[in-house]
Amino acid sequence: MPPLAQTIPREEGDPDDSDEDILVGGATQGFKDPISLTVFVDPVTSTKCPHSFSRETIYAMFNQPTITCPAHGCRAQLTKADLVRNKNLENRVKAHLRREKERAEKEMRDAVDMTIEDSEEE
Which domains does the chain have, with CATH numbers? Predict the structure, then answer.
């Protein structure tokens, strides 16, 4: 199946392509923790399934020694020992946050430049 962007043309007002999703082993993984829906902080990945979480949010779910993976449709049984630090994902998240900050700073500079140009034309 072709990518959605090839099937449905982009329209004005659509969000631009961001690096918010990354390709991991043939599957797309976002930079957001599926529990908190915020950007990963200290990401860990399960050794029993391919899912990643922010350490604090997944650890908060352990009110017993074993839990079912909270990712939608996953039935893997997890213990804290099954969750290992994902340094690769951590580095990708840091790079993503750096790019987002640079993009926001550039947008701010461009807006200031346009304001200055507009005021000079008057």
Answer: 20-121 (3.30.40.10)
